[in-house]
From TrEMBL:
It comes from Herminiimonas aquatilis. This is histidine kinase. The keyword Transit peptide does not apply. Its EC number is 2.7.13.3. Keywords: Kinase, Membrane, Phosphoprotein, Transferase, Transmembrane, Transmembrane helix.
Length: 430
């Protein structure tokens, strides 16, 4: 979970830390700006304002020919005694640098004369630079500290959420979920997870029990039907027409028995499912034979293209359900043309040139009871949902595509078989 968080820029931990750091940046920027403004205001108040008052005082004393006394680092110039550096300055207060020294200069044109009062503020400017350097260092230190505190605080804040997420990810039982007894929002979330998990577990358990019970109860009458049909075939051996009917009854009962066995397998966990090597080629040929009866007199041709004899490590009962449903759908919805089956070691494709899947149901195609109402050949809406469930149970993948020529194309992919083929190829190469 931590590895996922570190690689995910949208993780809760990063969001909290980012918000903390952003808030610290805004506050530090505000206080740094306030400090800069305060220093500038202090400079204007302490130096420029006082120097302006002092200039007016000295000029008054000079004009009235009174003795005046200048503070340290302050110089007063009149007309031709004004240094060349200050002569071109306009009337007002100025801040200039002369020979790496900072001066605040007040220029006055009064009584037909030009007066200049200069103050050497190099020491103040150096102090000002030290203040700005201290503020900058404080800003950088505050940001570094906020990053450390943000990351640490975020880790502590989401620790209960992380623990809950890890427990959910490892499929912990409802009683094992952390924070169940806490009174905060995490506790509410944990109790909601526990309640929902408990409901889902009971639902799944009931579904498995129902599937197993129904399948078990159906096996007995189906076994009796199979036995009766076998006996009927023996007794009708001399009547070919009646024998064909008996054979059909036996075949349907055998198919129903296979479906019941498949339902029992679906009630098991995929990890406990025992698999054997199954010939998909033979399985498809058998399903084609069964679907021929559905076509009746329709001008529909089933074309089977395979890349040799394909074997797959799976269960024939479940594979037969998936392939049979797809093939029956193709035959049912195709009124004329071709149902094309393409088989390779990686995938199985079943394509028809029927009406296709309406756009309004494509996104929910594999959900239960979803079907196109405008289609005249409306089924129960369960066939594709069953195919999806069987595919997931076997570790397969099911996808839908619409061919350019119209109709539908369903593709069953076998990732496990692809991996096994790659391993076998590596062994052959070595």
């Amino acid at each position: 979970m931590n590895n996922k968080d570190s690689g995910n820029s949208q993780s809760l931990r990063r969001r909290i830390a980012g918000a903390f750091i952003l808030m610290a940046f805004i506050l530090c920027s505000f206080f740094s700006f306030a400090s800069f403004v305060a220093v500038e205001m202090a400079e204007a108040k302490l130096i420029d304002h006082n120097l302006d008052k002092l200039t007016n005082q000295i000029i008054g004393q000079y004009v009235s020919k009174q003795a005046y006394e200048l503070p340290p680092d302050v110089n007063f110039y009149v007309d031709e005694h004004i240094p060349e550096t200050f002569r071109k300055l306009p009337d007002g207060i100025h801040e200039i640098e002369v020979d790496e020294k900072e001066f605040h200069v007040v220029v006055r044109d009064m009584h037909g004369q030009r007066f200049v009062l200069s103050d050497d503020t190099t020491d103040f400017e150096d102090t000002e630079l030290l203040i700005f350097a201290a503020v900058t260092a404080g800003f950088v230190a505050s940001m570094l500290l906020s990053i450390l505190l943000g990351l640490g605080s975020a880790k502590r804040l989401i620790a209960p959420v992380t623990a809950l997420a890890e427990a959910v990810e490892r499929n912990a039982t409802p009683s094992e979920l952390p924070s169940l007894d806490t009174k905060n929002e995490i506790g509410v979330l944990a109790r909601a997870f526990a309640k929902r998990t408990d409901q889902l577990q009971h639902f799944l358990a009931d579904e498995k029990l129902f599937t197993g019970d129904v399948s078990h109860e159906l096996r007995t009458p189906l076994t009796i039907m199979l036995g009766a049909s076998e006996l009927l075939k023996v007794r009708l051996a001399q009547s070919p027409e009646d024998l064909a009917v008996a054979e059909r009854i036996r075949r349907v009962a055998a198919e129903a028995s296979e479906r019941v066995s498949a339902l029992l397998l679906l009630s098991q966990s995929p990890e406990t499912l025992e698999r054997t090597q199954v010939s998909l080629t033979h399985l498809i040929e058998r399903e084609i034979e069964r679907c021929q009866q559905l076509l009746g007199n329709k001008p529909v041709r089933i074309v089977f293209e395979d890349a040799g004899h394909v074997w797959l490590h799976t269960r024939a009962e479940l594979a037969g359900i998936a392939i049979g449903n797809l093939l029956r759908n193709a035959c049912q919805y195709t009124q004329e043309g071709t149902v094309k089956i393409t088989l390779s070691t990686e995938r199985l494709s079943i394509e028809d040139n029927g009406p296709g899947i309406p756009e309004n149901v494509r996104e929910r195609l594999f959900e239960r009871f979803v079907r196109g109402k405008e289609n005249p050949y409306v089924g129960s809406g369960l066939g594709l949902a069953i195919v999806k469930r069987v595919a997931e149970h076997l570790g397969w993948q099911i996808a839908y595509a619409r061919p350019d020529s119209g109709g539908s194309r369903f593709i069953l992919s076998f990732p496990s078989n692809l991996d096994a083929t790659a391993v076998q190829n590596d062994k052959n190469l070595s």
